[in-house]
Amino acid sequence: MSKKQRIISLAVWLCLILVSLAGVLLTEDSERAETIRETMRDAVLHDSNKISLFGIAEVNPALISAFTVTGILLIIALAIRLFVIPKFKYVPGKFQLLLERLVGFFDGLGTSNSPHRNGFLNVYIFGAGVYIFFGTIFELFGLQAVTSHGIPISLPAPLSDINAAIALGCLSYLVIMSGGIASNGIRGVGKTLKDFSLPISMSFRLFGALLSGLLVTELVYYYSGLSFVLPVVVAILFTLLHALIQTYVLTMLTSLFYGEVSEVHKTKNKKTKTEIKA
């Protein structure tokens, strides 16, 4: 890059910074229908801004997000199975290589942490990991919905609702228990129940991480003076980091504990006659 190009690029960046700073200083906070406390409370409990589900009941926006993400993932999976997988080649293309790397990552994660009965485990952590990742970045698209009170809102990440996080944590715990039962019978149940706090820790770890990003984003968007450039950086940074970290953490913990409870412990055999003679 020549000296002239560097000066031009520096001038462009300075102009953008000055325009953003001017927007922050000149913008006055408009009156809000809700206080910051009410906004934060509703982001956690979803007790006021609810959405009508086909006129049957009023539900949390996260439930609509969960249905939307699940439907999109199922359609994409069906399309890949019908139109992409039959055309796989010996020398993979870019999309085929991406799919193979993705499947190989979760397959290797499950196999390395659980050498015994890892077939179902690999499938589960792949599904859970994909759902956590795409469910987390779903809020970046800013899909709009209208509450039962006529207020437009952006649909949040499905797992930002405590109910969804608890459901996924308990489901992972049941998968871990199933591995113990399949390998060790009743003893597998006892080994799993020893870690009774596992579903609680998994659920609240997932919920707390995603909620923290949501609250920071809500705080930034609440004040008009902060709504220049900063929300883009904050939203993308927090969302992508939480999507990657929480996907890895939950799948790693599930495969690790599954491997512990599914490990077959051989009973000690009685002494053989040769050992007795010796």
Number of domains: 1
Helix/strand class:
mainly alpha
Shape: globular
How many helical stretches?
10
Question: How far apart, in Å, are the first and last alpha carbons?
Answer: 84 Å
Low-confidence region ranges? 270-278
What amount of the residues lies in strands?
Answer: under 5%
* Chain-averaged pLDDT: 79
The succession of helices and strands, N to C, reads HHEEHHHEEHHHHH
Give the radius of gyration: 25 Å
Biggest pleated-sheet summary: 2 strands, antiparallel
Element layout with pairings:
Blueprint: H1 3-26, H2 36-45, E1 51-53, E2 57-59, H3 61-84, H4 94-113, H5 119-137, E3 144-146, E4 152-154, H6 162-184, H7 186-193, H8 198-222, H9 230-261, H10 273-277
Antiparallel strand pairs: 1-2, 3-4
Helix pairs in contact: 2-8, 4-5, 4-9, 5-9, 6-7, 6-8, 6-9, 8-9
Give a structural overview.
The chain is mainly alpha-helical and 278 residues long. It contains ten helices and four strands; from the N terminus they run ααββαααββααααα. The chain has helices at residues 3-26, 36-45, 61-84, 94-113, 119-137, 162-184, 186-193, 198-222, 230-261, 273-277, and strands at 51-53, 57-59, 144-146, 152-154. A hairpin with a 3-residue loop joins strand 1 and strand 2 (57-59).
List keywords for this structure.
278 residues, globular
